[in-house]
Amino acid sequence: MFISLKRMIAGVTLACGLSMAAALPAAATDLSFYFPVAVGGPITKLIDGYVAEFQKAHPDIRISPVYAGSYQDTLAKALTALKGGDAPQVAILLSTDMFTLIDEDAVLPFEQLAKSDADKAWLNAFYPAFMENSRAGGHVWGVPFQRSTVVQYWNKEAFKEAGLDPEKPPQTWDELVAFGHRLTKRDAGGAVTQWGVQIPSSGFPYWLFQCLAIENGVVLANEAGDKTDYANPKAIESLQFWHDLSARERIHPSGVVEWGTTPKDFFERKAAIIWTTTGNLTNIRANAPFAFGVSMLPEKVRRGSPTGGGNFYVFKNASPEQRTAALEFVKFMTSAERAAQWGIDTGYVATRPDAWETPAMKAYVAGFPAAAVARDQLQYSVAELSTHDNQRVTKALNDALQAVLTGAKSPAEALGEAQANAERLLKSYR
After folding, report:
1. Of 43, 122, 156, 87, which is closest to residue 313 (Cα–Cα)?
2. Which residues does UniProt assign to the signal peptide (predicted)?
3. Domain 149-307+383-429, what architecture?
4. Ranges of H-type helices in 347-427
5. Which of 21-30, 201-210, 226-235 shows the lowest mean pLDDT across its residues?
6. CATH homologous superfamily for 29-148+308-373?
7. Is the per-residue pLDDT at 99 higher than 50?
8. Residue 268 CA to chain centroid, in angstroms?
9. Of all helices (H) and strands (E), which one includes residue 32?
10. N or C: which end of the chain has fewer CB within 10 A?
11. Rounded distance between C-alpha atoms, residue 107 and residue 316, angstroms
């Protein structure tokens, strides 16, 4: 009887324990998420809002956003953390960082995560132009999120004052020069008060130069990321054109033009036409004190712009549970609805065609048709310059561009040296 009672008590205790265990919530899966922006500001508020929305739908996953500074800062911090055994599980890094991340054995191909038919359909839902900087060696390494192209903005009031049709931006290089002459203003002393054209050359000079190269029919790097074509005669011709906008035509500021202040120069009527990222669209819409237009870039032998911006990456250090959670988070953040809202909120290009079919995006484009320009330009776009040892290979080109724009070297000399440096850096990868 005593033994039987003991067994009964043990059985009741076990049953209660199992019941209580079943009632307790499962331990949450924690994900560290690196995002390339300085702390504070509207972008961080948007991301915080998306994270909160995701966690409400997935209470078993906790996301910790880390706002890590510039893209370069974020990459450096992620790789440093990787070497210290504390890498993030998820990060937004430049699409052009793909080869660096592969060479560092830092990230997972998404095929290892996206295994169901629904997952595979999601992975195939993005614009092909954006996937050019997401695939290598037959694998998908990054998923497009905040992506962009370079577009042309023009001040319609300045066009009217110059006797130009305010609804017709320059469509060719020849028109860009002709319009630039009519739009450049000088005071009585000959000092320029408004430049006709402004193309920034600090920060990302290779990206803006790539526009000119593409428009002149040359792609600066191969798909495998182990060869460049910096010294191609058409590339030299493209750089000569950029140089001549200031040195010969005198319709463009001389020297190095700051990336960060170019939109402000536009607002302040210091430049009538600017080239910059579509990621500035919301900023320009909010701050330009005049009617403005947005168009595809003008062409020489073809239209074209490189794509740009950041992709989602999942790091190898993630546990199986974290990998599953990371996939859910990336899918949520890149859904059609989220891609549409991100594009509306920021000006980045919604990265998948079905995002443009959502009611929110249709209403936005109906009220602001300029938002669709970058999307329409994707059919002419090519991958942003990306290679193995990308930062040094790109720096070789950036240094060459700035040497030419400041008058220190000729285009042929500078690009020849840049190609020799790139060849030396990339030889081992072949």
Report:
1. 87
2. 1-28
3. 3-Layer(aba) Sandwich (3.40)
4. 359-367, 373-377, 390-405, 411-426
5. 21-30
6. Periplasmic binding protein-like II (3.40.190.10)
7. yes
8. 26
9. strand 29-35
10. N
11. 5
